[in-house]
Amino acid sequence: MSLGEMVRTLGLRSWHFQSAALGSVALCTILWMRAAGLDQEERGNAERRAIFVGLWVPTLWQIGESLRDVE
Question: pLDDT tens-digit profile of 43-65?
Fold first, then answer.
């Protein structure tokens, strides 16, 4: 059984993952803008958090594309 088939048995569809990817873009942007208002000591941690969330986007999008192929 492939990963796409396993995810599909959980009831998840491709649009769920693609929506999550777009939501991650929005969350990353919000976190990045919020980091600009912090002092220098806290800014580094907030920017790393924004970058970490931004790294979710290609993974979630690719899972959605793979699942769309199964559908």
Answer: 888 899 999 999 999 999 999 99
Cβ atoms 32, 43 nearer than 8 A = no
- Token readout for 5 is 């088939």
Amino acid residing at 18 = Q
d(CA 26, CA 58): 14
When divided into structural domains, the chain yields a total of: 1
Q: HEC states along the chain? A: CCHHHHHHHCCCCHHHHHHHHHHHHHHHHHHHHHHCCCCHHHHHHHHHHHHHHHCHHHHHHHHHHHHHHHC
Enclosing domain of residue 42: 3-70
